[in-house]
Design a protein that fits this description.
- This protein is α+β, with helices and mostly antiparallel strands.
- Helix content is about 40%, strand content about 25%.
- The protein contains 13 helices and 14 strands.
- Strands 7, 8, 9, 10, 11, 12, 13 and 14 form an 8-stranded mixed β-sheet that branches.
- The longest helix is centred in the middle third of the chain and has 32 residues.
- About 0% of the residues have low confidence.
Length: about 400
């Protein structure tokens, strides 16, 4: 007997299998009917639906079998999930994988087997629709077509289980979704839906009026990345109620977003107390590095105004560090057709985050690449050599918190 190999995507496969929950009681009646139809249509004494867990084969519906689970190592289904198409064994005694298999030697003494691989929404093999007989046999073209048609229908049914809740919501709000879809087909409204909450009105108008400058999809851009983060905010969150923290954040973000939009920055992410801003994507901007530094300085000044407002409300003051880096990055719509967002990825973003981590309260640190662009315009008040995680050589970062 030859054991089936473990798929390379085993962890993802098991996760998919568990999330679908084929053993749920509401699925059994449907599976029983499918097994009965397969058995009658193809005139086979054994038919069953099984899944392959970490160590067990689980039988979810069957006729002609007296057990509900077995060792994965002795299962035919373990081999089937490795196949991109139907596995057919016309005579198990003539197949080195199965001739001494316990299910061949002992009851139910399988001599013929056919298994159709069942795959999840993500394409992971989770189980099989199986038929078997105690005598060798072949499937003619019509029988194979019937078997595979039923198998495909079962795959679609299993995938629909995963989409069941979503489908209910779609049915309830179908009319509303159709209106939204019509709006998204109009490019101006599409851009407003995608970008409107994250950039200034002036930048949005530029993108809408000149669509050629912004591809829907990934593209390489030279841009400047600004990342800000509040100091000691985690400990503050533990000391105050959730309502208080949300109130503080709303006051802070209202001021910061207004400043960022003023300088034509694109807010790519707001993660709690941290803000990721891009200058130069999705739309090209002149003087991106200078804009980012001017924006950062106004953000630090604006934070003082925020703290005055917080003081009047008897709320704790805030402190912020800002890191800036310039370079090439990949920008575009990330995700899937069902759920996507405009995002940026790459070493340029990572280095900006590492630089921000070196800041103290009130500080603005910029990378060498950014300083090289603005050195004729800005003077630094200090510089240090640091080792950045993921970068082999040390780099110099410059403090431009204020004019020298």
């Amino acid at each position: 007997m030859k054991l089936a190999t473990i798929p390379k995507n085993e962890n993802a496969r098991i996760a998919d299998l568990l999330s679908i929950n084929l053993s749920a009681s509401d699925k059994k009646a449907q599976f029983d009917r499918i097994v009965m139809i397969v058995s009658k249509c193809l005139d086979v004494p054994i038919a069953y639906i099984s899944s392959i867990g970490s160590t067990q084969q689980n039988i979810h519906a069957s006729c002609g079998l007296s057990f509900q689970s077995s060792d994965r190592s002795t299962s035919f289904c373990g081999h089937t999930i490795l196949q991109p198409e139907t596995l057919i064994v016309e005579d198990t005694l003539q197949d080195s994988r199965f001739f001494d298999n316990p299910m061949v030697i002992n009851d139910p003494k399988i001599r013929f087997y056919a298994g159709f691989p069942l795959t999840s929404l993500l394409g992971n093999g989770i189980g099989a629709l199986c038929i078997a007989d105690s005598i060798p046999r072949k499937l003619n073209e019509t029988e194979r077509l019937i078997f595979e048609t039923i198998g495909n229908l079962l795959v679609e049914r299993i995938r629909m289980y995963k989409l069941g809740d979503l489908q209910k919501q779609i049915n309830i709000s179908q009319e509303k979704l159709e209106k939204v879809n019509n709006q998204l087909n109009q490019s101006n409204q599409f851009y407003q839906q995608l970008f409107g909450q994250y950039m200034s009105e002036a930048l949005l108008r530029t993108i809408v009026e000149d669509k050629k400058n912004t591809k829907l999809g990934g593209e390489e851009r030279y841009a400047t990345v600004l990342i800000s983060d509040l100091r000691r905010f985690t400990s503050m969150s533990e000391a105050y109620s959730a309502d208080t923290i949300v109130n503080i954040l709303n006051i802070y973000l209202e001021k910061m977003i207004t400043i960022i939009h003023k300088h034509e920055g694109f807010i790519n992410e707001i993660l709690g107390d941290g803000i990721l801003v891009i200058f130069g994507a999705p739309n090209a901007l002149e003087n991106c590095a200078q804009r980012a530094i001017e924006c950062a300085r106004e953000m630090q000044a604006g934070l003082q105004e925020v703290n005055k407002e917080l003081e009047t409300k008897k709320l704790p003051s805030l402190e912020m560090g800002i890191g800036i880096n310039s370079g090439f990055l990949v920008a575009g719509n990330i995700g899937s057709k069902k759920r996507m967002k405009y995002g940026v990825v790459g070493e340029t973003v990572n280095i900006a985050a590492r630089i921000e981590a070196h800041t103290i309260a009130g500080q603005i640190l910029i990378s060498e690449t950014t300083y090289d662009i603005v050195k004729d315009w800005v003077e630094y008040i200090g510089k240090i050599r640091v080792k950045i995680k993921g970068i082999t050589n040390h780099i110099t970062i410059y403090d431009v918190s204020q004019d020298a």
